[in-house]
Design brief:
The complex is a heterodimer of chains A (about 300) and B (about 575).
Chain A: H1 2-16, E1 54-60, H2 67-80, E2 85-91, H3 110-118, E3 128-131, E4 144-146, H4 153-159, E5 167-176, E6 181-190, E7 194-206, E8 209-214, E9 227-233, E10 236-240, E11 250-257, E12 262-269, E13 281-289, E14 295-302, E15 304-305
Parallel strand pairs in A: 1-2, 5-15
Antiparallel strand pairs in A: 1-3, 3-4, 5-6, 6-12, 7-10, 7-11, 7-13, 8-9, 13-14
Chain B: H1 2-25, E1 35-46, E2 62-74, E3 77-86, E4 102-113, E5 116-123, E6 125-126, E7 134-135, E8 137-138, E9 143-144, E10 147-154, E11 160-171, E12 174-175, E13 179-188, H2 189-192, E14 201-213, E15 226-238, E16 241-250, E17 265-276, E18 279-289, H3 319-323, E19 333-345, E20 357-369, E21 372-373, H4 379-387, E22 401-402, E23 408-426, E24 429-440, H5 442-445, E25 453-466, E26 470-481, E27 488-497, E28 501-509, E29 524-531, E30 534-543, E31 546-550, E32 553-557, E33 560-570
Antiparallel strand pairs in B: 1-2, 1-33, 2-3, 3-4, 4-5, 5-10, 6-7, 8-9, 10-11, 11-12, 11-13, 13-14, 14-15, 15-16, 16-17, 17-18, 18-19, 19-20, 20-23, 21-22, 23-24, 24-25, 25-26, 26-27, 27-28, 28-29, 29-30, 30-33, 31-32
The chains are: A alpha+beta (about 300), B mainly beta (about 575).
Chain lengths: ~300, ~575
């Protein structure tokens, strides 16, 4: 009987010492409604503060027969420097025109066409590339690189060696497919006190689009007229996401700004209608010196689709 | 001020007791048989400027840590106090000890009768190996997580031992916000079951539950205010063999150090031993995940730990091996194994020599626990997202990551292989030689930007005795590494004049430092006087910055240049 009493006592005591609250949902899921953004968080620790990333705009077109070989070289260079480089393929100009029945896909975008005209690409051989929208003193102050001038690999290598930047730039993007909310947040850390006018430009690109491409490297036995119908187009510009009409994006900084300042930029927009697969979309943020039009920092993020 | 009043009251109480004792002694009074004993411990440092070794400038020019224990016992009663003073704390000890120069942070009264023991006030306690609860004082590390509350121990039957406690933990000169409630039971089956009393197989089983309460605070998260954990253990001994194990589990316990995840914690510790005369072998293994259990979810450093995770690394004693790259247990996750072997080659044998030779080999391997994070493959990014305390689509339950206790990660935290050979050559000369190989994840343990440190350490120690009173002990140590501060050498010579005096001179030199200006000598001289329980030492010289660890728990030791004084005594 005593043993029984002691056992009950033990169980009662043990019960007293086992108080515990189990929490299944530590924080409620935010309620989301159409047209209202819940902006994603940016991991401030993961922001690059060590160097300026090299932003390359490749001007190309599906009817450009030499383009695929040069794109392959550019993608190799990107693969070797993927932490330091961002590449966008801008389809514009005569080589990018829709031409039925062989070239039904339209990769043109209003912003791509604006850029094509802005850099006077009609007077340049295609493919051409612009690097950080900047000129290179060691390469005859060239802005546009192509086979007629200097090919772009060497200036990209040079740009990839920089080891400082005035801006840390982070970006996050979420697309709520059912509601159509495309919510983009960018955080900018000013790393040194600077004076000037700077804009933030936000672009949308889509990767790995399968469509036709003229390619000099293939055999006509396999691909009649050398048109590769299952060509994978990489990093294709799908449009500018900023709401304003400027080629350089929205004003971000005007005047002097102290080192250590953080600026948050939020954009509530819609997914460009030409996007085929939202799963393959990326958003690119560019800090552009509005006075010189030079891209001083850039960052790319894969869109998180919900 | 309160503490000073308490201190005065304590002295007054002791004084009155003594007076009463004197007054009533002759008549065989109430205090017959009262015994008062205690001990005294002072450690002080004086600091000079020494920028080359990175010694911090100390405005007070000195620091003193002093402790006095007074314990009174009479029959079934024991009561005690500990007076502590930090004027200011010695460099390397938490500055919060200096928030109060002197006080009585530890006082208790215990009553013991018929298998029942009740303690009110402060007490230390350990359940099993400590995986779920251990309150202890490690003065050399500045650790004191004593409980302040009530503890009851009771043995209702022979072989059954129960403990229950409730209390707050010491937090420097304050108490923790959290309240800890705990219960432990242990069953010695050979005592409990009469048929097993004389069996060679000895079996012990135990189980514990611990729960802490801390109010939720202002976080955006719904925090569990009561967090419970439990542990089960066994120990088997059969002739020369021993086997013990303990498994601990902790429910959701979001804390600052685990990035507020709600994942359960688990720990497993196993140890097997075999020993006979002249030979012993031990193999221990453990795996722990998210088992940092503190009474305050915001606490860091070594503060307010409820539990203790046993170290699986050798506690080196030689200077270079012990203080440059000692391993600190990673309570949020690690997997480790350690093997120890000791073999004494018989005296008089060809290899053992006239007096015998002892060989000791120790190996420890500690790796990360492999984790698959829900939000990102990159651990820093995943932790940064968790720290933001926002809803995470990929991890709505904030479990953080997936793993299991057998999921050994690739990241090496620590490797130590060491061999020690100890041989007495003549009646008056003994030599000990040690080699250690260490690989040390300095980025994790010391937050330094570096690859793992790979170090080779060699030590030779000699002891010569000259008659009954005189002895010379010397040490030569060297450490080779390409990482961190590069190569070191260390030399020590010590003269002993038995039984009272020891004079020591030592120097260490960082001759391999890549920065030429940091190739510095650290000479020190020390004189020690011993008289019964009294030990006094005074030294002067440079102290190298390093890490000091006891049982896998560490504190930083800053560089210093100056005088050191240490006095210990007991009565």
């Amino acid at each position: 009987m005593n043993s029984l009493k002691h056992s009950f006592l033990l169980i009662a005591i043990a019960g007293f010492f086992t108080a515990c609250n189990k929490v299944d949902l530590p924080i409620p899921k935010p309620v989301e409604v159409a047209g209202v953004c819940i902006f994603p968080e940016i991991d401030s620790n993961a922001i690059n503060r060590d160097f300026r990333k090299t932003y390359v705009e490749e001007f190309t077109g599906h009817k450009c027969i030499t383009c695929p070989a040069n794109t392959t070289l550019l993608l190799q260079q990107l693969e070797e420097n993927k932490e330091r480089m961002i590449v966008v393929s801008v389809h514009a100009g005569g080589f990018a025109k829709v031409d039925l029945p062989d070239y039904p896909t339209d990769f043109n975008t209003p912003y791509g066409t604006d850029l094509f005209q802005h850099f006077s690409m009609a007077t340049q051989p295609i493919p051409s590339a612009v690097i950080n929208r900047d000129t290179f003193p060691t390469f005859n102050d060239l802005l546009v690189f192509n086979q007629a001038t200097t090919f772009w690999d060497k200036p990209i290598d040079e740009a990839n060696t920089n080891s400082s930047t005035d801006f840390g730039l982070g970006i996050a993007a979420e697309y709520a497919e059912e509601l159509g909310n495309f919510c983009i947040k960018s955080s900018i850390e000013v790393l040194s006190t600077i004076t000037g006018n700077y804009n933030l430009l936000v672009l949308c690109v889509e990767d790995s689009i399968i469509a036709e491409q003229l390619d000099a490297r293939v055999s006509e036995d396999e691909y009649p007229k050398k048109i590769v119908t299952d060509y994978m187009h990489r990093h294709v510009l799908r449009g500018k996401l900023n709401n304003d009409q400027s080629i350089n994006g929205d004003p971000l900084i005007s005047g002097t700004i102290e080192a250590g300042t953080w600026i948050d930029y939020e954009l509530n927009t819609v997914m460009p209608a030409n996007v085929v697969s939202t799963e393959n979309t990326h958003v690119i943020a560019l800090i552009v010196n509005a006075d010189t039009e030079e891209v001083v920092q850039s960052e790319e993020v894969h869109v998180h689709v919900r | 001020m309160k503490q000073l009043q308490l201190l005065s009251s304590t002295f007054l109480l002791v004084f009155l007791c003594t007076q009463t004792l004197t007054a009533q002694d002759e008549g065989g009074g109430l205090l017959d048989g009262l015994q008062i004993h205690g001990n005294f411990d002072v450690y002080g440092q004086q600091y000079n400027k020494d920028s080359i070794i990175g010694a911090p400038v100390v405005p007070q020019k000195s620091g003193i840590n002093a402790f006095t224990n007074l314990i009174a016992t009479k029959g079934k009663f024991t009561a005690g106090v500990r007076i502590e003073s930090y004027l200011p704390p010695v460099q390397g000890f938490d500055v919060r000890y200096g928030n109060q120069p002197i006080g009585v942070p530890f006082r208790y009264a215990t009553f013991k009768q018929d298998g029942l023991e009740v303690t009110a006030g402060n007490f230390y306690e350990q359940f099993g190996n400590g995986l779920i609860l251990r309150a202890y004082e490690e003065r050399a590390l500045g650790i004191d997580n004593a409980f302040d509350g009530i503890r009851v121990k009771y043995s209702p039957y022979k072989g059954v031992y129960l403990k229950g406690l409730v209390g707050n933990q010491r937090y420097y000169w304050q108490k923790s916000d959290g309240i800890v409630r705990a219960f432990d039971s242990e069953f010695q089956l050979n005592e409990l079951i009469s048929q097993l009393e004389t069996r060679a197989l000895r079996i012990s089983l135990g189980g514990s539950v611990v729960s802490k309460f801390q109010a939720g605070g202002t976080s955006s998260l719904k925090l569990p205010e009561n967090v419970a954990g439990g542990a089960g253990r066994f120990q088997l001994n059969w002739k020369d063999f021993g086997l013990m194990g303990e498994y601990a589990y902790k429910a959701n316990d979001p804390t600052k150090s685990n990035h507020y995840i709600y994942k359960e914690g688990q720990g497993l510790f196993m140890s097997a031993t075999y020993s006979r005369k002249g030979f012993g072998v031990n193999i221990s293994a453990k795996s722990i995940d998210n088992m940092e259990f503190r009474s305050d979810r915001e606490a860091g450093l070594n503060d307010l730990f409820i539990n203790y995770l046993p170290a699986l690394t050798r506690q080196h004693t030689y200077n270079l091996a012990a203080t440059l790259y000692p391993y600190a247990t990673q309570p949020n996750g690690e997997v480790g194994i350690q093997g120890d072997l000791i073999y004494k080659i018989k005296r008089g044998s060809k290899i053992g020599g006239k007096y015998g030779t002892t060989i000791q080999i120790n190996v420890s391997l500690i790796n990360a626990l492999k984790r698959d994070y829900y939000t990102s493959e990159n651990i820093d990014t995943a932790n940064a997202l968790l720290d933001q305390q926002v809803y995470l689509d990929a991890d709505p339950g904030r479990k953080g990551y997936k793993t299991n206790l057998l999921n050994i990660g690739d990241s090496v935290y620590y490797r130590d292989f060491n061999i020690e050979i100890d041989r007495k050559f003549t009646k008056h000369f003994k030599l000990k030689a040690t080699y250690a190989f260490q690989e040390y994840n300095i980025a994790l343990i010391q937050n330094k930007v570096s690859d793992n440190v790979v170090a080779h350490i060699g030590v030779v120690e000699g002891l010569h005795t000259f008659g009954k009173k005189h002895s010379i002990r010397w040490e030569a140590q060297t450490l080779f590494t390409d990482q961190d501060q590069g190569d070191w050498i260390f030399g020590l010579i010590e003269y002993g004049y038995s039984p009272h005096w020891i004079v020591t001179i030592l120097n260490q030199y960082n001759y391999g430092n890549k920065v030429e200006d940091l190739r510095v000598n650290y000479p020190t001289a020390q004189v020690t006087y011993i008289q019964n329980a009294l030990r006094m030492s005074i030294g002067y010289g440079r102290q190298r910055a390093g890490i000091f660890c006891v049982g896998g728990v560490c504190r930083n030791v800053p560089a210093a240049n100056g005088l050191t004084v240490a006095i210990t005594s007991s009565f």
